[in-house]
């Protein structure tokens, strides 16, 4: 019997909270002005504006990419033309370093796999 009374009082509290919430939400609806949805012309204008900004940003990024690429290629060609032996030594050093890094990565992966199998 006591459990039934507790359930009934909890149910009553939930209904009070629900009624208060509904009442306050309706009051909020009355206070906040109703804004209509934007018209088609407004949406089209917004789309055009966003597309123009994106196009400008993409063009700027593309020009920056081409500028950096031209600079790097220019430095590489100048280094190859004016100092061929140091350029080739640097290329060889970078290639050997990359190969060594790959070999070390593969070796550490094999050791980890061997320890997991044991």
Structure description:
The protein is an all-alpha fold and 118 residues long. Among the domains are: 42-82; 84-118. Helices cover 91% and strands 0% of the residues. It has helices at residues 2-31, 40-82, 84-117. The chain is flat, with a radius of gyration of 35 Å.
Count all strands and give the number. Answer: 0
Helix content: over 70%
Report Rg. Answer: 35 Å
Main β sheet profile: none
Distance between the termini: 63 Å
What ranges have pLDDT less than 50 throughout 5 or more consecutive residues?
A: none
Strand content: under 5%
H-E string: HHH
Write the layout of secondary structure elements.
Elements: H1 2-31, H2 40-82, H3 84-117
Helix pairs in contact: 2-3
Task: Write a brief caption for the model.
The chain is mainly alpha-helical and 118 residues long. It is 91% helix and 0% strand.
Keywords:
118 residues
């Amino acid at each position: 019997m006591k459990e039934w009374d507790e359930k009934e009082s909890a149910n009553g509290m939930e209904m009070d909270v629900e009624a208060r919430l509904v009442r306050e939400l309706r009051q909020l609806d009355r206070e906040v002005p109703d804004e209509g949805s934007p018209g088609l012309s407004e949406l089209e204008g917004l789309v055009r504006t966003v597309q123009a900004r994106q196009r400008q940003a993409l063009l700027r990024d593309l020009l920056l990419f081409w500028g950096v690429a031209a600079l790097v290629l220019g430095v590489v060609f100048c280094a190859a033309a004016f100092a061929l032996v140091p350029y080739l030594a640097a290329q060889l050093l970078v290639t050997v370093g990359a190969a060594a890094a790959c070999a070390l990565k593969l070796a550490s992966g094999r050791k980890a796999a061997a320890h997991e199998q044991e």
